[in-house]
Amino acid sequence: MTGTRLTIISGCSGGGKSTLLLALAARGYATVEEPGRRIVAEELAGEGRALPWVNPQGFARRAFDLALADLTAVEDANEWVFFDRGLGDAMAALQHCGAEVPDGAEALAIFDPLVFMAPPWPEIYQQDAARRHGFAAAVAEYERLCTFYPAQGFTVITLPKAPVAERVEAILAQNAAD
Protein backbone atom coordinates (compact mmCIF):
# COMPACT_ATOMS: atom_id res chain seq x y z
CA MET A 1 0.00 0.00 0.00
CA THR A 2 2.96 2.28 -0.59
CA GLY A 3 1.71 5.70 -1.66
CA THR A 4 -1.80 4.94 -0.48
CA ARG A 5 -3.59 7.23 1.92
CA LEU A 6 -6.75 5.77 3.43
CA THR A 7 -8.96 8.46 4.93
CA ILE A 8 -12.15 8.03 6.93
CA ILE A 9 -15.06 10.42 6.61
CA SER A 10 -17.38 9.73 9.51
CA GLY A 11 -19.87 11.66 11.56
CA CYS A 12 -23.53 12.26 11.97
CA SER A 13 -25.97 10.16 10.02
CA GLY A 14 -27.57 12.46 7.47
CA GLY A 15 -24.71 14.94 7.77
CA GLY A 16 -23.77 14.92 4.07
CA LYS A 17 -21.02 12.29 4.00
CA SER A 18 -22.30 10.43 0.94
CA THR A 19 -22.75 13.67 -0.98
CA LEU A 20 -19.21 14.64 -0.04
CA LEU A 21 -17.87 11.28 -1.28
CA LEU A 22 -19.67 11.75 -4.58
CA ALA A 23 -18.00 15.16 -4.98
CA LEU A 24 -14.58 13.67 -4.20
CA ALA A 25 -15.20 10.90 -6.74
CA ALA A 26 -16.21 13.48 -9.33
CA ARG A 27 -12.82 15.11 -8.79
CA GLY A 28 -11.08 11.80 -9.53
CA TYR A 29 -10.45 10.48 -6.02
CA ALA A 30 -11.08 6.85 -5.15
CA THR A 31 -13.98 6.38 -2.74
CA VAL A 32 -15.60 3.52 -0.86
CA GLU A 33 -19.33 3.66 -0.23
CA GLU A 34 -20.67 3.32 3.31
CA PRO A 35 -21.05 -0.35 4.32
CA GLY A 36 -24.29 0.34 6.18
CA ARG A 37 -26.17 1.63 3.15
CA ARG A 38 -25.08 -1.38 1.10
CA ILE A 39 -26.14 -3.79 3.84
CA VAL A 40 -29.53 -2.14 4.29
CA ALA A 41 -30.17 -2.32 0.53
CA GLU A 42 -29.31 -6.05 0.50
CA GLU A 43 -31.38 -6.76 3.60
CA LEU A 44 -34.43 -4.84 2.33
CA ALA A 45 -34.24 -6.90 -0.87
CA GLY A 46 -33.90 -10.13 1.14
CA GLU A 47 -35.04 -11.43 4.50
CA GLY A 48 -34.05 -8.36 6.50
CA ARG A 49 -32.41 -10.21 9.37
CA ALA A 50 -29.44 -7.82 9.73
CA LEU A 51 -31.22 -4.48 9.49
CA PRO A 52 -29.97 -2.02 12.11
CA TRP A 53 -33.48 -1.54 13.55
CA VAL A 54 -34.06 -5.33 13.68
CA ASN A 55 -30.69 -6.72 14.76
CA PRO A 56 -28.17 -3.95 15.61
CA GLN A 57 -25.42 -6.39 16.57
CA GLY A 58 -25.88 -8.50 13.42
CA PHE A 59 -25.84 -5.33 11.33
CA ALA A 60 -22.65 -4.09 13.02
CA ARG A 61 -20.94 -7.46 12.48
CA ARG A 62 -21.85 -7.40 8.78
CA ALA A 63 -20.61 -3.80 8.54
CA PHE A 64 -17.32 -4.85 10.14
CA ASP A 65 -16.88 -7.77 7.72
CA LEU A 66 -17.78 -5.62 4.71
CA ALA A 67 -15.37 -2.90 5.86
CA LEU A 68 -12.54 -5.46 6.04
CA ALA A 69 -13.47 -6.65 2.54
CA ASP A 70 -13.37 -3.03 1.34
CA LEU A 71 -9.81 -2.75 2.65
CA THR A 72 -8.81 -5.88 0.75
CA ALA A 73 -10.38 -4.43 -2.39
CA VAL A 74 -8.16 -1.32 -2.23
CA GLU A 75 -4.96 -2.98 -1.03
CA ASP A 76 -3.28 -2.45 -4.40
CA ALA A 77 -4.33 1.19 -4.63
CA ASN A 78 -1.57 3.74 -4.92
CA GLU A 79 -3.67 6.83 -4.33
CA TRP A 80 -5.79 8.67 -1.81
CA VAL A 81 -8.87 6.61 -0.95
CA PHE A 82 -11.81 8.08 0.98
CA PHE A 83 -14.08 5.83 3.02
CA ASP A 84 -17.66 6.75 3.91
CA ARG A 85 -17.63 5.40 7.45
CA GLY A 86 -16.09 1.93 7.35
CA LEU A 87 -14.09 -0.11 9.82
CA GLY A 88 -13.90 2.37 12.69
CA ASP A 89 -17.61 3.12 12.62
CA ALA A 90 -18.38 -0.61 12.58
CA MET A 91 -16.08 -1.14 15.57
CA ALA A 92 -17.81 1.69 17.44
CA ALA A 93 -21.20 0.16 16.65
CA LEU A 94 -20.09 -3.25 17.93
CA GLN A 95 -18.83 -1.67 21.15
CA HIS A 96 -22.12 0.22 21.54
CA CYS A 97 -24.03 -3.08 21.16
CA GLY A 98 -21.84 -4.68 23.81
CA ALA A 99 -20.33 -7.08 21.29
CA GLU A 100 -16.72 -8.15 21.08
CA VAL A 101 -14.80 -6.68 18.18
CA PRO A 102 -13.69 -9.60 15.97
CA ASP A 103 -10.22 -10.30 14.64
CA GLY A 104 -9.17 -7.77 12.06
CA ALA A 105 -9.61 -4.67 14.18
CA GLU A 106 -5.87 -4.03 14.01
CA ALA A 107 -6.43 -2.98 10.38
CA LEU A 108 -7.78 0.32 11.71
CA ALA A 109 -4.14 1.32 12.28
CA ILE A 110 -3.47 1.56 8.52
CA PHE A 111 -5.83 4.53 8.13
CA ASP A 112 -4.65 8.12 8.02
CA PRO A 113 -4.54 9.54 11.58
CA LEU A 114 -7.00 12.30 10.60
CA VAL A 115 -10.71 11.46 10.61
CA PHE A 116 -13.07 13.99 9.07
CA MET A 117 -16.37 14.27 10.94
CA ALA A 118 -19.59 15.57 9.45
CA PRO A 119 -21.36 17.29 12.36
CA PRO A 120 -25.07 17.14 13.11
CA TRP A 121 -26.81 19.40 10.63
CA PRO A 122 -30.59 19.44 11.16
CA GLU A 123 -31.21 21.57 8.06
CA ILE A 124 -30.07 18.75 5.75
CA TYR A 125 -31.00 15.70 7.86
CA GLN A 126 -33.61 13.46 6.22
CA GLN A 127 -35.03 10.11 7.14
CA ASP A 128 -35.51 7.55 4.37
CA ALA A 129 -35.99 3.81 3.89
CA ALA A 130 -32.39 3.14 5.00
CA ARG A 131 -32.26 5.83 7.70
CA ARG A 132 -35.28 5.25 9.90
CA HIS A 133 -33.87 6.68 13.11
CA GLY A 134 -34.56 10.25 14.16
CA PHE A 135 -32.18 13.15 14.44
CA ALA A 136 -31.64 12.66 18.19
CA ALA A 137 -30.37 9.11 17.58
CA ALA A 138 -28.08 10.42 14.83
CA VAL A 139 -26.63 13.00 17.22
CA ALA A 140 -26.07 10.35 19.90
CA GLU A 141 -24.19 8.20 17.38
CA TYR A 142 -22.10 11.22 16.34
CA GLU A 143 -21.14 11.85 19.96
CA ARG A 144 -20.09 8.20 20.37
CA LEU A 145 -17.93 8.44 17.26
CA CYS A 146 -16.34 11.69 18.49
CA THR A 147 -15.29 9.76 21.60
CA PHE A 148 -14.37 6.52 19.81
CA TYR A 149 -11.91 7.86 17.25
CA PRO A 150 -9.67 9.87 19.64
CA ALA A 151 -9.62 6.86 21.98
CA GLN A 152 -8.14 4.89 19.05
CA GLY A 153 -5.42 7.52 18.51
CA PHE A 154 -7.07 9.48 15.68
CA THR A 155 -7.34 13.23 15.40
CA VAL A 156 -10.86 14.37 14.60
CA ILE A 157 -11.37 17.28 12.23
CA THR A 158 -14.92 18.60 12.15
CA LEU A 159 -16.08 19.52 8.68
CA PRO A 160 -17.76 22.88 8.22
CA LYS A 161 -21.51 23.14 7.71
CA ALA A 162 -20.96 24.54 4.27
CA PRO A 163 -21.64 23.74 0.61
CA VAL A 164 -20.11 20.47 -0.53
CA ALA A 165 -17.39 22.22 -2.58
CA GLU A 166 -16.16 23.98 0.57
CA ARG A 167 -16.14 20.71 2.46
CA VAL A 168 -14.07 19.09 -0.30
CA GLU A 169 -11.61 22.00 -0.16
CA ALA A 170 -11.37 21.70 3.65
CA ILE A 171 -10.31 18.06 3.28
CA LEU A 172 -7.90 18.65 0.42
CA ALA A 173 -6.35 21.65 2.21
CA GLN A 174 -5.59 19.38 5.16
CA ASN A 175 -3.64 17.14 2.77
CA ALA A 176 -1.57 20.14 1.70
CA ALA A 177 -0.89 20.94 5.36
CA ASP A 178 0.46 17.44 6.10
TrEMBL record:
Residues 8-167 form the NadR/Ttd14 AAA domain. It holds the Pfam family AAA_28. InterPro entries: NadR/Ttd14_AAA_dom, P-loop_NTPase. SUPFAM superfamilies: P-loop containing nucleoside triphosphate hydrolases. It comes from the Bacteria. Gene3D superfamilies: P-loop containing nucleotide triphosphate hydrolases (3.40.50.300). Coiled coil: none annotated. This is ATPase. It comes from Pararhodobacter oceanensis.
